[in-house]
Amino acid sequence: MIALFQQCAINYQLSRRATIPLCPEGSGLPVAFGDLTKQHQNNSIMVVTTRSSLRESQHILIRQLANCIEKSWERYLNLCPYDIPEGLGYVEGSLEGEKLTIENHCYQTPQFRKLHLELARIGDRLDILHCVMFPRPNYPLPIFGVDLVGTQGGIGAAIVDLSPVNRERVLSNSYRNVLANLPAVKFSQPRDLPQWGDIFSEFCLFVRLVDSREERLFLERVESFLTLHMRIAISTSPVFSSVQQAEILAGQHYYCTKQQQNDKTRRVLEKSLGRAWTDRYMTTMLFDSPHAV
Q1: By the 8 A CB rule, do 48 and 101 touch?
Q2: In the prediction, which pLDDT does 52 show?
């Protein structure tokens, strides 16, 4: 029988700013697995790990990238609680006789409805990092995403993108002008995007990393994407036009629908945890479509 471990309860205390609430009403408890939250002087949340994270036993690039993402979130954003669906914060299963472990960390901010960092491991042979930053439907921002899949011997798949959600599927000039002028980097083994990959931008990077040099270059490129995205996000004002919000909703829904077509992810989860559980996980945890503002 597959054991599903309930997310541990975490106490927290938040205060509000006079100008903008840090968290929406009814946001619930902080649910980053194995973390406590502390309050900065600027009223944001910081992450303090209180138990060993799965990343400590994963490929070094996954550990470095997970730490980089969380530190960047803390630096630029006011992290707020986010309710992970029941039973999905920490998951254990079995896949072909090997232990499957999934660890989820989630937050929200005034600009983002969900910041999701997923770490997963299958036995001692496969390590996974998955991260998506979903903007709120009233913020005209692309979707940042990064994935790593590999073993202790190397990273076989590494992808990062800022995926546009507007009708034209094109990033705004505030992104394009910076991304187009980043230093050129060459990877020896580029990979082809999947057939459903029309959601990705022209700046999407999808490669196999063959050595430590390429791992460093990929980490640096992710940092560049992430820093640009958060700097633009915190300087962006929400939109109030129902037409604009509907366009953002439609774009995010399209993105989630396409990502749910990833057969490789679905097959792994179904083998270990069953079809019904996988459907729930992919539609409520990994790629949940947003609701209207």
Answers
A1: no
A2: 56
pLDDT in tens, 204-256: 999 999 999 999 999 999 999 999 999 999 999 999 999 999 999 999 999 99
| Tokens, residue 133 | 């930053």
The pTM for the full model equals 0.84
Whether the Cβ atoms of residue 142 and residue 164 lie closer than 8 Å to each other: yes
Distance of alpha carbon 156 from the chain centroid: 19
Residue 140 · residue 236 · CB < 8 Å: yes
Residue with the two structure tokens 């083998």: 271
Query: Which residue, among 33, 47, 38, has the nearest Cα to 15 in the 3D structure?
Result: 38
Smallest Cα–Cα separation from 114: which of 234, 24, 231, 46? 24
Domain residue limits at 97:
4-286
Is residue 291 one of the residues assigned to a domain? no
Tally of structural domains, the chain: 1
For residue 77, CA distances in Å to 149, 161, 164 come to: 27, 20, 21
Question: Is residue 260 helix, strand or coil?
Answer: coil
The pLDDT value given to residue 45: 53
How large is the angle between the packed helices 60-76 and 212-234, nearest 10 degrees? 20
The CATH number of the domain where 136 resides is what? Answer: 3.40.1500.20
Single-letter residue type at 130: H
Q: How far apart are CA 160 and CA 145, in angstroms?
A: 6
Neighbours of 255 (CB within 10 A): 24
Distance CA 54, CA 105 (A): 11
* DSSP-assigned beta bridge partners for residue 145: 132, 161
